[in-house]
Write a structure and sequence with these properties.
By secondary structure, the protein is mainly alpha-helical. Among the domains are: about 195-295, Ribosomal Protein S8, Chain: A, domain 1 (2-Layer Sandwich), CATH 3.30.1370.10; about 425-495, K homology (KH) domain (GMP Synthetase, Chain A, domain 3). Helix content is about 70%, strand content about 5%. It has helices spanning about 5-135, 140-185, 205-210, 215-225, 245-260, 265-295, 305-310, 320-340, 345-355, 370-380, 385-390, 400-415, 420-440, 465-485, and strands spanning about 195-200, 230, 240, 315, 320, 445-450, 455-460, 490-495. A three-stranded antiparallel sheet has the order 1-3-2, with helices on one face. A hairpin with a 2-residue loop joins strand 4 (about 315) and strand 5. Helix 2 (about 140-185) packs across helix 8, helix 5 crosses helix 6 (about 265-295) and helix 11 (about 385-390) crosses helix 12 (about 400-415). The radius of gyration is 54 Å and the shape is flat. The termini are far apart.
Length: about 500
């Protein structure tokens, strides 16, 4: 046998081996697949059997639970039925008892009616006998008896009423004294009196010449711009500022201090500084009002009312600082209202605002109480607040308990020894009236009463008032002052008409 044949035989043997291996492998895989399929069918069969067993057990458990719950429900229903039966029996027994009691009452009522009839018969016989004895009819006897009983009842009622009134007065007086004393003791306020002038201290007397200016033009410009009487005399290092209006005095003081620090004192600069100071004072007034409201715990007040409260700082009432007085009245009213179980917040609000009519910007013929009430209404204050404002001088009817409290606290604050001076208030009112007279004429822009009311400076509009009209206006104002005001000495009326031509170089 050759090599080629041997090689071919080997290849055939190998090919046959590979083919037999593949056939054997396929047969093995088929056997394994058949075994796996048989195993799966067995598992599925066992699972079905187990699921059937579980289902059977769950059904049995559900049936047992249903039977148990049904038994419990039937027992509960049975207990409730027994309870209802017992209650029904109890109610029946009670109904029987009530029926028996009603029957007894009916019997007693019939007996009482018989007794009443017998008494009426006896009473009629007695009345007839008494009438025969006293020669009086039954009606006349009843009338005399009624009159006697009425007189006795009136007498007893009058005695009782008098005793009740006396007791009420005594208790009310004790309670009022207790409340007032408690209120006054809990409020400690400063007693201050403001004057109509203040002294401004300067560093040296050389500044007085600058303040006066050449031929007095600076001091005249200051007086015209501020409406304050400025006195520069031989008193060392002092300048006296006089005005009945505290706001004007404060503006003049601050403006003069700023001018002295700046060193430039001339009419143009004076007007500029005074205008700036007036704006600053308005801001200070607003800040003062806001601080006052916050200190007293008053919130939600209209901005115009806050501004009026701030203006109280520069206003005096009979020599007493109006802001101090209003704060004191607010604290007194709040304390008294708390003692009486009333709304202390509303009381404090009414006490603070009770004198806002004195610092109102607009001129009015109304009293300060009525004007303050109108302002409070305008800015939507509570009805009890504006009634207390308008009624604190008995000008309208008091409709709430706060009104007499504010009136009493106003009197308490103003009646402290040394607090007020009536003469100063009359003096300030006279100066206000003098300015109002001048402002009532047409063409008048501003006017200032200075020199303690001995001089009235009137600034007019140069476009509508000529020189001839200015002379006539001075005469008319002085004549009206003579007719309407009473004052010591004489009043000098000065009408100032100034024409300015202003242009700018650009």
């Amino acid at each position: 046998m050759g090599i080629t044949q041997l090689f071919i035989l080997i290849v055939l043997v190998l090919s046959l081996g590979v083919a037999l291996g593949r056939i054997a492998s396929k047969l093995f895989y088929r056997y394994e697949a058949k075994q796996a399929d048989t195993k799966i069918k067995f598992i599925i069969k066992e699972a079905k059997i187990e699921a059937a067993n579980i289902k059977r057990e769950k059904i049995l458990e559900a049936k047992e639970r249903f039977v148990r719950l049904r038994s419990e429900f039937e027992q509960s229903v049975g207990r409730r039925r027994e309870k209802l039966l017992s209650e029904e029996n109890y109610l029946r027994s009670k109904e029987q008892e009530i029926a028996q009691q009603l029957e007894q009452l009916h019997r007693k009522q019939s007996v009482l009616e018989k007794v009443r009839d017998e008494l009426d018969q006896l009473k009629a016989q007695r009345v007839k006998q008494l009438g025969e004895i006293a020669n009086l009819s039954a009606e006349a006897a009843n009338q005399q008896l009624m009159e006697a009983l009425e007189d006795e009842a009136r007498s007893n009622a009058a005695i009782r009423i008098r005793a009740i009134v006396d007791e009420a007065k005594e208790n009310a007086e004790k309670k009022a004294k207790s409340v007032i004393l408690t209120t006054i003791q809990r409020i400690v306020a400063e007693q201050t009196i403001e004057n109509c002038s203040l002294v401004l201290n300067i560093e040296n007397d050389a500044l007085k010449g600058k303040i006066i200016g050449r031929e007095g033009r600076n001091i005249r410009a200051l007086e015209s711009a501020t409406g304050v009487d400025i006195t520069v005399d031989d008193t060392p290092k002092t300048v006296l500022l006089s005005s009945f209006d505290p706001v004007r005095r404060e503006i003049a003081r601050l403006a003069l201090q700023q001018l002295i620090q700046d060193g430039r004192i001339h009419p143009g600069r004076i007007e500029e500084v005074v205008a700036t100071t007036e704006n600053n004072i308005e801001k200070e007034i607003m800040d003062t009002g806001e601080r006052t409201a916050i200190d007293l715990g008053i919130y939600g007040m209209h901005v115009e009312l806050i501004k009026l409260v701030g203006r109280m700082r520069y206003r005096a009432s009979y020599g007493q600082n109006l802001l101090h007085h209003s704060r004191e009245v607010a604290q007194l009213t709040a304390t008294m209202a708390s003692e009486l179980g009333l709304n202390s917040k509303l009381a404090k609000r009414a006490g603070l605002l009770h004198d806002i009519g004195k610092v109102a910007a607009e001129r009015s013929d109304l009293s300060h109480a009525m004007l303050g009430m109108e302002l409070a209404k305008k800015y939507r204050e509570h009805p009890e607040v504006y009634n207390a404002i308008g009624a604190h001088h008995d000008e309208i009817e008091m409709t709430s308990m706060l009104s007499p409290i504010v009136q009493a606290c106003d009197a308490i604050s103003g009646s402290r020894p040394g607090v007020r001076r009536e003469v100063l208030e009359a003096y300030v009112k006279r100066l206000h009236d003098m300015e109002d007279i001048a402002l009532s004429f047409g063409g008048v822009k501003k006017c200032y009463a200075i020199q303690a009311g001995r001089e009235l400076r009137v600034m007019v509009d140069s476009t509508s008032v000529t020189d001839e009209v200015a002379n006539t206006l001075a005469l008319d104002i002085s004549s009206k002052i003579e007719q309407q005001l009473q004052y010591p000495g004489q009043v000098k009326v000065i009408v100032i008409r100034e024409t300015r031509a202003i242009n700018y170089a650009k």
